[in-house]
Amino acid sequence: MKSQKGRYTLGLDFGTNSVRALLVDIRNGRELATAIHAYASGREGILLDPKNPSLARQDPADYLKGIEVAVRQTLAKAKKADKVFDPSQVIGIGVDTTGSTPIPVDRDGTPLAFHKEFKKNLNAMAWLWKDHTGFAEAAEITALAAREHPEYLAKCGGTYSSEWFFSKILHCLRVDPKVFDAAASWVECCDYIPAVLVGETRPEPILRGRCAAGHKAMFNAHWGGLPAKDFLAKLDPKLGGLRDRLYDKTFTSDAPAGKLAPAWAKKLGLAAGIPVAVGAFDAHLGAVGSGVFPGKFVKIVGTSTCDICVWPSDRPLADVPGLCGIVDGSVLPGYFGLEAGQSAVGDIFNWFVKYVQPGGPVQDSHASLTRQAAKLKPGQSGLLALDWNNGNRTILVDQRLTGLLLGQTLHTRPEEIYRALIEATAFGALTIIRRFEEYGIRIDEVINCGGIAEKNPLVMQIYADVIGKEMKIARSAQTCALGSAIAGAVAAGREAGGYGTFPEAQAAMCGVKPRTFKPDPGNHKVYLELYKLYRQLHDAFGTKDWSGSMYNVMKDLLAIRDRQLT
Amino acid sequence: MKSQKGRYTLGLDFGTNSVRALLVDIRNGRELATAIHAYASGREGILLDPKNPSLARQDPADYLKGIEVAVRQTLAKAKKADKVFDPSQVIGIGVDTTGSTPIPVDRDGTPLAFHKEFKKNLNAMAWLWKDHTGFAEAAEITALAAREHPEYLAKCGGTYSSEWFFSKILHCLRVDPKVFDAAASWVECCDYIPAVLVGETRPEPILRGRCAAGHKAMFNAHWGGLPAKDFLAKLDPKLGGLRDRLYDKTFTSDAPAGKLAPAWAKKLGLAAGIPVAVGAFDAHLGAVGSGVFPGKFVKIVGTSTCDICVWPSDRPLADVPGLCGIVDGSVLPGYFGLEAGQSAVGDIFNWFVKYVQPGGPVQDSHASLTRQAAKLKPGQSGLLALDWNNGNRTILVDQRLTGLLLGQTLHTRPEEIYRALIEATAFGALTIIRRFEEYGIRIDEVINCGGIAEKNPLVMQIYADVIGKEMKIARSAQTCALGSAIAGAVAAGREAGGYGTFPEAQAAMCGVKPRTFKPDPGNHKVYLELYKLYRQLHDAFGTKDWSGSMYNVMKDLLAIRDRQLT
Hints:
2 copies of one chain form a homodimer.
Chain A: H1 2-5, E1 8-14, E2 18-25, E3 31-38, E4 47-49, E5 52-58, H2 60-81, E6 90-97, E7 102-105, E8 126-127, H3 135-148, H4 150-154, H5 165-175, H6 177-182, E9 185-188, H7 189-198, H8 210-216, H9 229-235, H10 237-243, E10 256-259, H11 262-268, E11 275-277, E12 280-281, H12 282-289, E13 295-301, E14 305-312, E15 325-328, E16 335-342, H13 346-356, H14 362-374, E17 384-386, E18 403-408, H15 414-438, E19 443-449, H16 451-455, H17 457-467, E20 471-473, H18 479-492, H19 502-509, H20 521-542, H21 551-565
Parallel strand pairs in A: 1-6, 6-12, 13-19, 19-20
Antiparallel strand pairs in A: 1-2, 2-3, 4-5, 5-8, 7-9, 10-11, 13-14, 14-16, 15-16, 17-18
């Protein structure tokens, strides 16, 4: 019997630069094998436009190639690692991707990018999450929604982002109507990949994920799904027309998008007919892989952070201002998924090392600065920083904010600045956690994952000391792919040897590392004093309409900068 | 006849680390020869205490050795440079020194440091200007004066500094009463050197300079000279007692302190009996050497700045708040000398290069950062900084202020920060100039001197663009020593072939370099916009008692720092 030999699912994690496959033993979460395939096109997988720094696209062909290479390599490694492993033991597949990364497709669901006539057209490619070309359209959507449908904005922090679905599509319509007109529909990457695997990519039958729809396309059952047709038509009549070619229903990732198509089964060396779960975003399935549950707050800490928690859908929940999104079922079915985030964390440390201090090799500099910074006591440098070098995602939702460093003397050393920057991101993290708690969302545990959580114990200790809660680290170093594997196990269902629900699967497959970071009460006390000052700066420079507000300063500087640069 | 062969005076400039002698042709200011002697003791001439970073002392023996070496070398060089030069053509000597740098002396005027019993006692040495050990005593003096004699403070910006005469002496009294008790009097370095040269060092007959007395010892004719005996006695009865052993009269530098003593004439190879001018501080005679006159504002721009201007003593002048001092005759006899300054200028650039960016050799980094920074337009970096890394001397008179950098993104480059720091010092300079102008002091010309003015055209151009006035550079690279030589020529008087007044001497001996820096009107306009924002930060963090003031932030951080460091 298969069950005696073990049961496995595959998680496919489509990141910004590469795709990872991870083979997981669903009985215990053991990661049997993994492989990465870097996208071949563009710069590190991203198609750029030298004339437009806001543009970031991807060739969907890279995704398809990536599935094949990464899965086959993973299975080959698994066979080497475990002689009794057999691909027939793989009972399900889950998929997570970046987002919002919409792809214009034809009536068959084939990306326009695959058509000869659009082969070299960047607008026919996948519009990568970090593409900001639609910033003007985002402002337009925000303004219209604020006037006519404030409820649309209430669920996504009050501002519709240039990174999101309709900003990108409306921008395409404006700058390249040929592509827009040729598109039968637009499909999120996380919906496209499962559709490909199950062999049914036509827009109509595709099962669209709740996560992408709810967080990026203002989809909500309260107002009957996507934004109203007349709302979209006011932005552009053609956009109103597109609504009929999008979707009315969405699905959570416990549902199978379908069964693995024979052609793909053959290509990958898997059994045909195993379920492929409905796709979701990387951060959301990363939270699942970290064991997210009411009371368990997950921080994915890397170049930026994504903070995720859940709240039972049947319990009252106010619209928490400043969040990136509140979506029923976006993380776990039956729970609101709440998303927040910091626009830059590791990116700020990298900026300091690479740009301000271009002395030595970046890795060494991080290590040596961390070593030196670890010797400092909280507050002993006299420094305080704001973590806004890339704007503020939560709770201010304002990209037009910039960094601040204060307190430097003639003796201030680089490791003191480095530590102040770490502390600034910790204060930013505390601000987010407090916002959740202010709205009644209980946080008992903080589970961290992502590159910085994995690699930098000093950052984790400072987060514990600042936030005043124990910091745990997810056991898996690949929580996104693990979350996808969990979705695959739930989509497979109990009958097929999988799990009936996410919490069941998480109980078996997730865990935290033995080493945790407990707050030092003395340090926490000092940090609370410093946080008071951080908050004073935060409110002075980040909020307006009060006497003494310094809100204008960063904005005015950016306005002068933009004028001087043109 | 001597006059056909030329007439010369010697300027002796006692700096922080070395003494310079400069031989100047008084007919035209030509600098015939110069030599420097570095003080031998301590670290770069400064005696330090590893246990107390506030302490900075000097061995007066280094000064005496320095006179001999520097003057003899200068004369030797002069003979080589000009075959007809003869030391008998030297008709006077002027002296400038750092200050307040008081020296405890015995009844003969011999420094206690020369006594066997005090030979190794740092408290018996010269208390160098940058010694801050008396910071608690300074606060005590300020508090008492604010209560009982606010007029004392009105002439020195409202705060009595730890760098000044009575703070140091009171501190000595507190920590080392043996030295205090042994001291017959305390003599400023700028008064001690001329006394040595004229062979009469006894405290009583020494001619004390107006400059040191007025700027650092609260000496003012309005209240009968030094602060009242009962005022000093309230600080400590012994300090009240010392007042009788100090002085009641002070002199401007057109007066001779006496004639060169035969013993010293022999030692130096000069004619005995030539006049030695009353001494003054380096910055003040530096202003003289730069051609200071009503309407001509002198900036000595180095690691910090000293800004000096003069105003006719017979014309009304309000107490300008925030200045370092307003003293009748401290720069030119018959004029108020007004002193302001910035606590750090070049020191901030050095801090950035040496501490924040310890990549390459310091000189190269300055040069390459300057090259890169020169390519930027005003405002294009989006950065704004406050120049308070070493506190703010004028106009806030507050050492407990710290630096601030604002506007950084993930793309901010070091040359942008470097330029922002230069601009911050320019905004600080503009703030000082505006303060003078607000109180009716006309400024037609800005004449710069000092290391940065000499070496960095980018800084000068930014100063012109920010301040909106043409920046001129003093012709001499040694304006302090030149100012002393001018004092020597005036002390010699017309009869001896010198000059009757300072302005006469300046007209002949001073000038500016042909290259000046004119403001670019477009840049000035942008800088005025940026200055508005600088001023907003300046007032928010630097002034208190208004709603929205951020005055507490830097103070609170320093308080936390000080607590964490102990």
